[in-house]
Design brief:
With 249 residues, the chain is an alpha/beta fold. The protein has a single domain, classed as HUPs (Rossmann fold, 3-Layer(aba) Sandwich), CATH 3.40.50.620. The protein has 8 helices and 6 strands; from the N terminus they run αααβαβαβααβββα. A 6-stranded mixed sheet has the order 3-2-1-4-6-5. A hairpin with a 2-residue loop joins strand 5 and strand 6. It is globular, with a radius of gyration of 18 Å. The two termini are 30 Å apart.
Length: 249
């Protein structure tokens, strides 16, 4: 399984012309579509360069990716960008999964505390798109960028799935983002498949799943799914879906 495209120098590909990168990765992505998530992870760990790292929001279905990766590399760094405004249940869920899966958890935050930010900038999540963008850049994008650099991550694993948002439709399994690889082994999984995996390995959903939450972020800008709403509308007061962490880096 790990022999797939073993003739490609993925280190050299990072500095190859963009046209060559696209052509080669198109073939790789086509082949990865035929593999299981476990086989994709095994291949990526064996073939993609640099230190491997996994980002996690510890959201509703996060246990799947955390289990999937740690079964293959127990000590893989798990990066959490903590805004200081997560639900109490999320912090408890982080502790639960960290203990159960023996996670190598790396927590990154803004250099300004939540209280200091609010004193200086006010409640930015109530200041429209510009306020949300500034808040997310300071609390999500910048800490994640710092984590990737501090930990010298060469291949960044993430549990993004196309079904979660229109902004995630069409994302490939593997792509080059700047100086590193981004790998999405479950991008094509549907909720039913996620549920089957969690059930098979007796893994928990986030505790707020049972209260009607389908996507989780900060307390101040996350809503339960109500009749007539899409999953995207439950985040950031319905103004946007993405914080930028996966799309600005």
């Amino acid at each position: 399984m790990t022999k797939l495209f073993d003739d490609i120098d993925f280190v050299a590909l990072l500095s190859a012309p963009e046209s060559d990168q696209h052509a080669i990765l198109a073939k790789v992505n086509k082949a990865l579509a035929e593999l299981t998530p476990q086989e994709r992870v095994q291949w990526a760990l064996a073939n993609l360069p640099g230190t491997h790292g996994l980002s996690s929001s510890f959201g509703i279905q996060s246990a799947l990716m955390l289990h999937l990766l740690t079964q293959e590399q127990a000590d893989i760094p798990v990066i959490l960008t903590d805004t200081g405004h997560l639900f109490p249940e999320t912090y408890q869920f982080i502790d639960k999964l960290t203990n159960r899966l023996s996670l190598n958890l790396k927590v990154y935050q803004s250099e300004l505390s939540p209280a200091w930010q609010q004193a200086r900038y006010g409640k930015e999540w109530e200041q429209g798109l510009d306020g949300l963008d500034a808040y997310n850049k300071r609390n999500k994008v910048e800490p994640m960028q710092r984590a990737l650099e501090d930990l010298e991550i060469g291949t960044w694993f993430s549990g993004l799935r196309s079904q979660q948002a229109s902004s995630r439709e069409g994302l490939p399994f593997v792509e080059i983002r700047g100086t590193r690889y981004k790998f999405l082994p479950i991008i094509d999984l549907h909720n039913k498949q996620v549920h089957e995996y969690l059930t098979q390995f007796d893994l928990p959903y986030h505790p707020l799943w049972e209260e009607g939450y389908v996507s989780l972020g900060d307390v101040h800008s996350t809503r339960k799914l109500e009749a007539g709403m899409t999953e995207e509308e439950t985040r950031f007061n319905g103004l946007k879906r993405e914080c930028g962490l996966h799309f600005e880096i």
